Amino acid sequence: MHDSNPTPSIFNTVPVAPPDAILGLNTQYRSDPSPNKVNLGVGAYRTAEGQPYVLPVVRRVEQALANDPTTTHEYLPQDGLKQFCDLSANLILGPDSPALVDNRSVTVQALSGTGALRVGFTFVARFLSSETAVYIPKPSWSNHKNVVVQSGLPPTREYRYFDYGTGAVDMEGMIEDLKAAPAGSMVLLHGCAHNPTGADPTHEQWEQVLKVVQEGKLVPFFDNAYQGFASGSLQMDAWSVRRFVKAGLDMMVGQSYAKNMGLYGERVGALTVISSEGGNNEGIRSQLKAIIRAMYSNPPKHGAMVAARILGDTEMFAEWMREKLRGALVRIGTPGNWDHIVNQIGMFSFTGLTAAQVEFMKDKYHIYMTSNGRISMAGLTDDTVEYVAEAMKDAVVSLKKGVIHNM
């Protein structure tokens, strides 16, 4: 029997959290009945029918694992599948990396890139300082701010990164802001294929960033979610990370296989902590394992086993639709210069569309993208690229203010 006058729940005062800006688009997209709807918000490759695309090599490996009677569902250690961790370190650092040769790196399996960031920043809060300032680019992936604060660190600070006038990296602003960062601050850097802008520093510009990081005694944390997607080369896309490692810095690197292997839901990632000198790998690994144990105990097995069998095979990467979209925009006479869609790299592209133009396309054409005009190139197919280009042209012509003319 229940009390007729129950005490109000202690949870009644919990406020409703705002919906995630990116994942919320999925909800809107799924509820849209239009047969012409297109989702350009979330970075996930789709078939022409709009279904998740599974790489053929992933299918083959999964089938082989299913047919292998020795495959089990045994727990992995807290730090994950050793083969996967070793191959991940080799992939991002290079097999001849001084960090590996000198035995001054520790790699643990993580819950994709987000998990790598969460474990890494928790490690920073616990063993560097809970007051460590973390600088992220402006703009950056929206979840960076959430992860940093949830890890027990102060709210993120921003450094200028994108020049909205040219569509390229704002090096002058970036260098100026990083020079002003206090010694010991962490600087989050996108190793390649910057999300959301698709604008990356050149090798010469990375050298400028490295110099400021060294002189300012800053600690870099590279977020590498798209290795192989920027240039099409695993080696080229790891250049920035490897250059900083070669400089002998204390640093951290997060990796994700959600995009480049299409293992989105398997949550496959890795975190590598690199020391400027060797000697404390055992301490670092033990504390990372302790953090993981309290957070999620141990990582999932299936995706790590799939990735471990595939790593190093450059033929697994899907082709992008960049040239087709740019060509369609030019062919139909869309006002403005759209070369930046080709020049920007990775899974995402900053179109230069305003929030009003984005809303116009959603309402009239049922095309979904983030309000800042970032589109996921992975959401385009041969069947939708012309439709999207026509919609972009209509939005630009109908709402001309804000369109980028000088890229």
Automatic annotation (TrEMBL):
Keywords: Aminotransferase, Pyridoxal phosphate, Transferase. It comes from the Eukaryota. One of its GO terms (biological process) is amino acid metabolic process. It catalyses: L-aspartate + 2-oxoglutarate = oxaloacetate + L-glutamate. Its EC number is 2.6.1.1. Residues 36-391 form the Aminotransferase class I/classII large domain. InterPro entries: Aminotransferase_I/II_large, Asp_trans, NHTrfase_class1_PyrdxlP-BS, PyrdxlP-dep_Trfase, PyrdxlP-dep_Trfase_major, PyrdxlP-dep_Trfase_small. The keyword Transferase applies. Its cofactor is pyridoxal 5'-phosphate. One of its GO terms (molecular function) is pyridoxal phosphate binding. The keyword Transferase applies. In eukaryotes there are cytoplasmic, mitochondrial and chloroplastic isozymes. Belongs to the class-I pyridoxal-phosphate-dependent aminotransferase family. Homodimer. This is Aspartate aminotransferase.
